Amino acid sequence: MPLRRLAHLTLLVLALLTGLAGYYAAQLRFNYNFNDFYPAGDPDLDYYQGYSQRFGNDNDYLLLGVEAPRGGTVFEPTFVAQLDSLARQARTLPHVLGVTSLSTLRNPVVEGVGVYELPYLHPQDPSRRAADSALIFQTPGLVGNVLSRDARAAALVLQLTPDLKKPPGDSLLAALHAAAARAGLPDARLHLAGRVVAQSVFVDRLKMELMVFISLAVVLVTGLLRLTFRTWWGVVLPLVVVLGAVLWGLGVMGAAGVSIDLMTALLPLMLFVVGMSDTIHIISRYVSELGYGAGKKAALRTTLRESGFGSGLSALTTSIGFFTLMTSTIKPIHNFGLFTGVAVLLAFFLSFTLLPAMLVLLGQPQLREPRRQGHSWDGVLGGLFSGVLRRRWGIYAASGLILVVSIGLATRVRINSSLLDDLSKRDPVRQDFAFFDRQFAGVRPFELELKPAGGRTVYDPAVLRETERIEHYLTATYGLQFQASPATLVRATRKALHGGELADYRLPTDSAELAGLVARLRPLRKKPEFRALALPDGSAGRLTGRMGDMGSIRADALNAGLRRFLRTGVDTTVLRTRLTGSSNLIDKNNENLTLNMIQGMAIDILMVTVIVLALFRSLRMTLIVLVPNLLPILVVAGVMGLAGVNMKVSTSIIFTIAFGIAVDDTIHFISKLKLSLGHEPNLFKAVRRTYLLAGKAVIVTSLILVGGFCTLLFSQFDGTFYVGLLIGLTLLFGVVAELTLLPLLILDIYGRRKRGAREVREAVVVP
After folding, report:
1. 356 and 495: one domain?
2. In this prediction, what percent of the chain has a pLDDT beyond 90?
3. Which residues make beta-bridge pairs with 111?
4. 423 lies in a domain?
5. Dihedral of CA 181/184/185/187: which sign?
6. How many CA atoms, within 13 angstroms, populate the side-chain half-sphere of residue 504?
7. Which positions carry the signal peptide feature in this UniProt record (predicted)?
8. pTM of this prediction?
């Protein structure tokens, strides 16, 4: 089949496939599911899912904080009326199951067969304000929950329908803002916190940032391609190929029914800058062949033959670098690794089908600056190569010093995360969450299941005593600011039966009295507020609460102390307990981060080792390839330690991805070296020829990669910002090591037995 007809047929088939990919890509939706960040397959996750079915999710709530007017308190009559209006409106909104508010709370009192609910506040009677405030501050469970410690803010606690999605969640948030405006409360005095808030903000920002990153990357890459090739086709063709690869990658995601989340939102940019590598190597070599006088067909044939092998290996290693992320138990990271790895292979396929077809149909290209004796890049790279040889010992010394310092600084990196650590501390949403940590009990949920032993129920006297002992520990030592348990129900019932007096808010000491209280509770056991703390048959209970978000390092220390107390300070023959909850699961991710990172790096290193051994059958060459690629990883780890950047879910992917991408140019270099050695047995001349042939593509692709990742510096997510910064730094250090350390190691270690002392001396002065 004639070459041009084959090119036309190739373009037709690829166009049809691209249309299909576009159809599926259009089905993609943005999503931020907090539950996806739980460690999949973990026994604690299975346990929590069963716990949630019994008692409900611990993050299906929304906190709405309202500040009193400047200089006033929440006990002012006008403010109480506004708060009451907001609470009553909120109670009528869809997806709101219940509202707890200072203005609507009642103090129940049982007299005879009747139950009376007395309000805590009497805003129409100023003479009772002091007594009301004193009662509220003395009543357990109010301060920190619905009232701030300084009485200058109140909170509404809204219980929502389980697992509320973004569209209805956004409607609820908008309705609450409208309700506050009708109540005369300006937005400046409102603070919102909860899963639906984070979900709304994250998804909206993902959409915006995805467009910003792609736009910036297109502008940046277009400029670099223009400066490099100085021809219109040298700019347009790579962009067509890579944008097609991005569309194919998104189409595969859409066909698999996967949503775009915080991690997979990086796929288009990642693929755009990584997928550009093969097109740069192809066009760079193609232009070189044309510049040296080869015809179009001959130049294209040579380019595909010599670039295909190295590009195939580099695509394999890069995709494996992403595939290793599938070892993560965190679903967003798993999906990101899977679909980005697949997309890298698709980009390679398009680079060697679509790009050659377009070059065939392009006609005889005219170079902007044709040269008879090579390119200006040859002079630059030749001078750089000679300079590297002359400064070999300085390069070795500097590399060793950097290695030692980096390892020392890397030991300072800590694994630490918080609920909203992907948002900067200056972000309004994170400041709202911090407002509740500062003024109220906090936003971090706490969950402990209570399981009576020996046929007892949660209302058994011995079980209640052990429960109260745990409560005292959580308040005094653990730092829990607000908590509720079956013991809370018993104490509240006793208080109600004794005229609502605070002195009677305690567990009964008389078993007969306790039996009477439990009998009173029996008709109420199926009510939502009771079932949330104890099963109707009393076989299990829940100790729930909220606290400040102190970070996973502090949380791990507190949980270790709590577990010791539960083992030694609680009678397990009476009451067994288990720590659970969404916060506990998020903290558990940290235990897997280091293991997942080590697994990913080990797989990457093993694959590179296999490739190099297959090419050169030399352990020396394997060591030579690994050193200049592992050194930048250690340098960036040192930068993290120096800057105090913590390891967390979003930054744990940095090293695996950076190594997989950085080794790409090394694979290109050694594959070209292998081909050069087939024509030129002299190692020094083969290395120099490879340096001149591959150097331009290495520099250009590295600049594109670094620039592409630097666009992430504009992200409002701290995790995304650090992914861009640290991977960019890794690749920058990587290209320096590639152009300095790699050729020296090849000549001095791999070629030790191949060259004599005279050739070494001559190599240093060769221009």
Report:
1. no
2. 26
3. 114
4. no
5. positive
6. 17
7. none
8. 0.79
